[in-house]
Each structure stands twice: as structure tokens, then as C-alpha cells.
DNA sequence: GGCACACTTGACGTTAACGTAAGGGGCATC
DNA sequence: GATGCCCCTTACGTTAACGTCAAGTGTGCC
């Protein structure tokens, strides 16, 4: 039952993908409008195949890491278009490498921000341990957050 | 000469900070409008001190890691406001921890994206080595990018 | 045939984060 | 005293990424 999601011949309605990836139909149509997706049609209705679904995954991940739809489109195009000759591919390669450098810089930024926040946490924890140890959030609260995240992962487990 | 940047009593004009952090005056006034900054005044003119400058650094880093100005403001407020009692601090602590979890998730996303792009690079490199080894970008190009990044770092070296 | 439901297109509305233009004050300098 | 430069406020414009609403089509079901 989870295995027919794997069957490459399986297709998806717009709603299927919306539910699976928690986006709205409007968003998918918008991505299509912008040239990031081009699902087949059955009459008027859109029919998404596995390739479309994979592209959507890339789009959403791209968004999460802060890329604009235009940038994502460019990358997707590069992925596709590279039968247009070796020169094209060389250009794509360069752009990919640039993106990697940018992402690495961004990751360093994030690590810095995390450190900063951790410093703040430490200070506050020390203060609270001193003043009001009863107010210190304990393992119980923390577990809730972790559980929430794990649930989220479970939801999308088959989507990976 | 770089050392008077360190002197805590030193103040800055709006242009000083704009040049140093490569933002526009409009942006600084906008942040003030939104309550993220509140520099002193000398007549009508804004006068920024070291605390304002530090806040600006945090704002810009927050932006780079994808936080909205509203979220950044919330964090900054939490940093300040924590003389408002231990209860407040406990709430701040919780929010800080949430932010940390979110940032860690985002970093994992970025790592995933980097891996994906690296995979694409590898495939393209193999293809090119096969077909047109002359088109392979070489150390020279790569160094340029690195140099650009190092220059950027050097520009902001005293800002760290 | 009438109803519900999912899909479609088209068009206007919305929010965040500024950009930009208009109009004006303060101070140095030629 | 006119020019130039930096600062100010007010206010309207802009872009991205959708949200929302209107109006229409097609499909199954009772």
C-alpha cells in the first residue's frame, strides 16, 4: 500500500500532491505558471507523474533553504536541459558550484546563529537555576517538541 | 584607527553603518519603524551607539538565516526584556530553544541540498571529462570565487 | 435531472521588505 | 548667497509568492 507510491507508473492528482506535501492547489498551479512544473493533462485536469513529484520535492526543499522560485527554476532547467551540448553543461556546472558555495556560507551563518542562541539559553538557564529552578523547562517539555518533529518525519517518511 | 571602532563610547552616523554593513539608509529607518532599532537623536539626526550596531548585526544575520523581521524583533525583545522577571525569562528560554531546533532542521535541509547539487556536479564532471575535458572549469576559476569570498570577509573583519 | 464534489481559468487582493520620489532643514564651501 | 552634501519625513510604488473569490466544466450518484 505504501509500495504503489513507489511504482513509477503511478500518477497523482493535484490534491494527492497537495495533501502529501502540505501545499495548496494554488501553489502548484502557480509553480506551473512560473514554469517549474508542467504536468500532463487529462482533458483539463492535471496529471502528475513521478518526475513531476520529484521536481516538486526539489522545489519545496529549495524554498526551505531560501532560494527564490526563479533560482529554483534555473537549477531545475539546468538539470534537464543538459542535452543541449557540453558548453551548456559546463555553464550549469559553474552555477551549481556557485550555489554550493552560497549554501555553505548560509549554513555557517546558521551555525553562528545557533551558537548565539545557545549562549543566550545558557545564560538564562544559569539565571533561572539560581533564581527559580522550578521554572526551568524540563525533559517533559523538550520531549514534546522532539515528538512533534518525529511525527512530522513519520508523515513524510514515504515521501523521502 | 581600527581600534576606535572598538571604543564603546564611539557613535555612528546612519551612513557609517550603511557603508559598513552594505545596507541602505532606508533599510535602517525601516527597521527602526518596525521597532528593531531605536538609536538616539541629535536634533533630528540619528546617532547609533555600539549597542545599536550590535543589534543591527543580529538583525542582518537573522535575515541571512531566513528569519522575518517580526521573528527577529521578538528575539531581540526577549534578549532585552529579561529583567521583567523570571517567568518572562522562562518563556524566552523556551522560544530560544524552539528557534534552535528550527535552525538545526534548516541546516539539515541545506546539507541535503548541497549533497544533491554535489551529485549533479559529479555527474556533469564525469560527462565533461569524457566529452570535452577542455571545458572543465579549473582551479583558476575556482580561486576567483574563493578570493571574492575572502575579500568580503576581510571587509567585515573588524565588524566581527 | 439535480446535487455534491473536484477540477479548471481569470482576476483582483495581500503581506513583507524595502525602493524611490518629493519636499525641506542644516552646515560647509566657493 | 548659491551650490553641494548629508540628513530628515511623508507617501506612493514594487516584487515575490501566493490567497481568495467568481464563474464555469465534468463526473458520479440518488
Largest interface summary: A-B, 52 and 51 residues
Shape of chain A: flat
What is the CATH level 1 assignment of the domain at 1-64 in chain A?
Mainly Alpha
User: How many strands appear in the DSSP assignment of chain A?
Assistant: 2
Spell the H/E element sequence of chain A. Answer: HHEEHHHH
Low-confidence stretches of chain A: 151-160
The main pleated sheet of chain A reads as: 2 strands, antiparallel
What number is the mean pLDDT of chain A? Answer: 85
CATH architecture of the domain at 1-64 in chain A: Orthogonal Bundle
**Rg value of chain A:** 22 Å
DSSP helical segment count of chain A: 6
The CATH topology label of the domain at 1-64 in chain A is Multidrug-efflux Transporter Regulator, Chain: A, Domain 2
Tell me the quaternary state: homodimer
Strand order of the largest sheet of chain A: 1-2
Percentage of residues in DSSP E strands of chain A:
under 5%
Distance between the termini of chain A: 16 Å
Structural category of chain A: mainly alpha
Helicity level of chain A, as a percent range?
A: 55-70%
Amino acid at each position: 500500500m505504501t509500495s504503489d507510491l513507489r511504482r513509477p507508473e503511478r500518477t497523482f492528482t493535484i490534491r494527492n500532491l497537495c495533501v502529501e506535501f502540505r501545499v495548496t492547489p494554488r501553489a502548484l498551479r502557480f509553480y506551473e505558471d512560473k514554469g517549474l512544473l508542467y504536468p500532463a493533462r487529462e482533458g483539463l485536469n492535471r496529471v502528475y507523474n513521478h518526475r513531476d513529484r520529484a521536481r516538486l520535492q526539489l522545489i519545496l526543499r529549495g524554498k526551505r533553504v531560501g532560494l527564490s522560485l526563479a533560482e529554483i527554476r534555473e537549477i531545475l532547467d539546468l538539470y534537464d536541459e543538459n542535452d543541449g551540448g557540453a558548453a551548456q553543461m559546463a555553464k550549469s556546472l559553474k552555477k551549481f558550484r556557485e550555489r554550493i558555495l552560497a549554501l555553505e556560507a548560509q549554513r555557517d551563518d546558521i551555525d553562528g546563529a545557533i551558537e548565539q542562541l545557545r549562549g543566550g539559553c545558557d545564560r538564562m538557564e544559569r539565571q533561572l537555576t539560581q533564581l527559580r529552578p522550578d521554572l526551568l523547562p524540563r525533559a517533559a517539555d523538550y520531549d514534546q517538541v522532539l515528538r512533534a518533529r518525529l511525527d512530522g518525519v513519520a508523515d513524510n517518511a514515504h515521501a523521502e
